[in-house]
Sequence to fold (312 residues):
Amino acid sequence: MKVRAARLIEHGKPLEVQQVELPTPADDEVLVELAYGGVNPVDGYNAAGKVNPDGPLPRTLGAEAVGHVDGVPVIVAGHGLGSTRDGVFAEAVVVPRDALVEVPNGVDLRDAAAVGIVGLTAFSVVELAEIGPADRVLVLAGSGSVGLSAISYAASKGAQVWGQTTNADKADAIVAMGAAQAVVSDAAGLTAAIQAFEPTAVLDSLGGEFTPAALAALVPRGRLVVFGTSAGPEVTIQLQPLYRKYQRILGFGSLGVSASERREGIAGTLRAIADGKLRIHIGAELGLDEVGEAFALVAGRKVTGKVILKLR
Fold:
């Protein structure tokens, strides 16, 4: 079976949409007819060779998608898709059966395309922080695709939520997802901007100077969950306030979860979406032939929310 797929031919070069022959599924594999794929920063890192530089070339990129197996809607994610084996930026793909999670009624296919990474991450960090009705939650990078979903899920638990952004044009989207307030601030002004809020929990995908600034305002026994370092991987923090205030720093990385943890987390995310507790904000939908434009939107943070590809 031949399908159209977005192929990485050489690191640092644009992807090429080509016709490729799919392999015959093995006993533990299945053919999935794909509908939509989620575009993530890691896809650009794969294309540039910044991660998985020894991955096979050429290969199809894409780490998360939604499609159908015998008419049943399923999410496809994990198992090295797009990194150590062909990914999901294609009309169809052959994957291990364990890479599939059935999509329940009440979940839109376009939203499901973002569950394998964005939805899973938002769900997991809110659960890891043990957010409840008594919490005041600060979501850093609140206008990002994960940030917006995390805001919606934390708010559904009864917490008061603020979302941070450096772009005032994205503040309305933060409030629309359930935040009581959008904080427009860089790292230098963050501590002062959130001091009166007295956050009990911070969800941090930025790192850099944002992490110590958020810790400075975090209340005693507060929790900070780090799940990204887009503002920088190295930080300097003062340990005495950290231990004297009984604060906790926790970490989450979707690439490090086991297959069973991923399936369980995706299933939980889908239940939360079906119940109206977690929302996915789709900022842009492009066609497979526009994969280069999709990568540029993600890398340049030019879209509020998630970028997806329509694969057929």
